[in-house]
Amino acid sequence: MPLLARMIPAPLVVDVRRGALAELGAILADQRISTSGRVAIAVGSTYGPIVQSTFRDGLAGADWFTVDGGTINTAIKLVEQIRRERYDAVVGIGGGTVLDVTKFAAARLGLPMVAVATNLAHDGIASPISTLDNDAGRGSYGVPAPLAVLVDLDLIAAAPVRSVRSGIGEIVSNLSAIADWQAAHALRGEEIDGLAISLARTAAEAVMNHPGSVSGDAFLAVLAEGLILSGISMVVAGTSRPSSGACHEISHAIDLLHPSRRAFHGEQVGVGAAFAWFLRGDSSAFDATVHCLHRHGLPVRPSDLGFTLEEFEAVVGYAPQTRPGRFTVLEESALTPSRITAKVNAFDTRITAVLESR
Ligand SMILES: [Zn+2]
Description:
Elements: E1 13-17, H1 24-30, E2 39-44, H2 48-53, E3 63-67, H3 72-82, E4 89-94, H4 96-109, E5 113-117, E6 129-134, E7 137-142, E8 148-152, H5 153-158, H6 161-188, H7 194-208, H8 217-237, H9 246-257, H10 265-280, H11 283-295, H12 309-318, H13 329-332, H14 337-356
Parallel strand pairs: 1-8, 2-3, 2-4, 4-5, 5-8
Antiparallel strand pairs: 6-7
This protein binds zinc ion (ZN).
């Protein structure tokens, strides 16, 4: 009988628990990622010194590098620094910026990358995508996904709560992204992947249906694991489609039109997902998204992100240009400026009604 299956590259290690960081050296050795301990470790300027002090006695063979900012130039500078010595692997310990820079640098150097997340603001923890600022604004670069993924809940519990909550918006947006992908399949014949959808959807549902909050370890573990599964869903799909649709186009438009007023990525995509569900006219998914964001203290309305309705209308109008060729509910709705104004105003009014009905 033929054994028909597809091989999916997956991390050797996924470790979500308190105290995971202290095991880094042992994990690198056990998994043969680095038996010599010769690894390059990239950290951010804020938490770097704290993280480094965890290894006063361990990881003697590691060299430490500080990453300052999430630009392509920072990533290239890191490549130049790391290539001067021989290393078995590159380890990124930090939030989204540090991990994105490290992923890109590891890909350029052809070295395995180990991700240690210090917040849960995004699904880049295990994804094959590095998002970096460049001369054109911001770009997404395809890179190998991390070989090992560690989430130390001690670090997460100590991180700014906004940076942790933001991941809820990120993962809730999966459901909207999947709806966009399925519509692109039905209306445009775009290929979809049922396994990628299963991973991305299950991850989002687990977080949305969990009764806990970011103050509890059980919830944090589900959120962390959900974000890791989201990343793997992108590996399976070979595209960011299972977790990025209209929700992300709206967030990219905010990033590009208002770079100095960016909120956390997950905060922006959460509002984007709510707006996308409103455009689809799916009131049950819209209500569930609004309630989930509100319950966890995330922005729901444009004003919660600091934007007037007029500014949000401009964001919506610009959003499709951020991902040319990606068919989402924004493109499907054939929005004219007057329709955008009407929809944005109705969206804002509807949120009030949904929240008051509780
Ligand atoms: Zn995202």
